[in-house]
Amino acid sequence: MEYKDYYDILGVERDAEQDEIKKAFRRRARKLHPDVNPNDPQAEERFKEINEAYEVLSDPEKRSKYDQLGSEWSRYQQTGGRPGGFDWGQWTSAGAPGGGERVHVRYSSPEDLQDMFGGGSPFSDFFSQIFGGMGRGAAQGARAGRPGGYEYQARPQRGQDYEQEIEISLAEAYHGTARIIQKEGGRRLEVNIPPGARTGTRVRVAGEGGGGPAGGPAGDIYLRVRVVSDPRFEREGDDLRVSAPVDLYTAILGGEARVPTPGGDVMLTIPPETQNGRVFRLRGQGMPQLKNPNQRGDLYAEVDVRLPTDLSPRQRELFEQLREEENERAK
């Protein structure tokens, strides 16, 4: 999971008081709620983020831990914290009819939520979904629970997705590879990275994310791939570009030159009088296509003529003769 700046998400300074954090959360919740932004596919994700930020910053103990760990907070969440929007684990549950779960809400009264969103606001449907009928005024189906709270029947919801960046080499992207991830409790999962993966490719591990509240389905884990650049190759989609060193004599007289590819070196036929910078296309020697790994892109080899150094006296004499002959031809 990548690090999230909860203060930036809520738009408050790091030394903000709790009252300021609460007001900022209310403002953003009204503005970013999915019901208010039905045509924005990112609204739900942003709404989850502000709930996640408020859940941490409104709790002095969690806020202190978050400030202390900084960029290591995500690792702490994976190994012992409880990331996500509403902290379902903070509520006590008991059996409830209708396939839902009876939960104790941390808010002191239903009016707390109405104070936040307004009794006549479009958020009533949202809270009706979560709390089983909470709308304008006192919620139907709500009853007094333990001191300081009310109980509502929550419907099952899907668990949180987790995302983690991984690095692979170009050779691993060419051949395909695997990574081991370890979940809480020590369980290890082997995740296959398919041939042809690019930077930005997301590999889904279904059902291994956060547990679903009220008995809902678990979320997923996504591994976001970053392919580390290889100094030998320049990647353009499924095609590759590479420099092919060719000695002067082969460039002039013709012959063969060794060209590197991710699958191993191949021999390229160099015709006589090949100019420096000439590009040869090697079909099917590029990267596998992600969705069809049996098909590969092409490799473009650019000739890099290497001039001889440390000439012997005899070699220098021969080059002098060649220059004289060339000058005679030019007359």
Describe this structure in words.
The protein has 331 residues and is an alpha+beta fold. The protein contains ten helices and 17 strands. The protein has helices at residues 6-10, 18-32, 43-57, 60-69, 73-79, 110-117, 123-131, 170-175, 248-253, 313-330, and strands at residues 93-95, 101-104, 143-144, 150-154, 162-168, 177-182, 188-193, 202-205, 221-227, 233-236, 239-247, 255-259, 266-270, 279-282, 288-289, 292-296, 299-306. A four-stranded antiparallel β-sheet has the order 1-2-4-3. Helix 2 packs antiparallel against helix 3 (43-57). The chain is elongated and about 95 Å long. Mean pLDDT is 79; it is low at 81-110, 119-142 and 144-150.
Across the major sheet, the strand order is: 1-2-4-3
> Rounded to an integer, what's the Rg over CA atoms?
32 Å
Return the domain count: 4
- The number of strands is 17
Calculate the mean pLDDT score and round it.
79
From the 3D structure, determine the CATH topology of the largest domain.
HSP40/DNAj peptide-binding domain
Assign the CATH superfamily of the largest domain.
Urease metallochaperone UreE, N-terminal domain
Order of helices and strands: HHHHHEEHHEEEHEEEEEEHEEEEEEH
State the low-pLDDT regions, or none: 81-110, 119-142, 144-150
Q: Could you tell me how far the N terminus lies from the C terminus, measured between alpha carbons in angstroms?
A: 72 Å
Shape: elongated
Q: Helical residue percent? A: 25-40%
Give the assembly state of these chains: single chain
CATH class of the largest domain: Mainly Beta
**Biggest sheet details:** 4 strands, antiparallel
Question: CATH architecture of the largest domain, please?
Answer: Sandwich
Structural class: alpha+beta
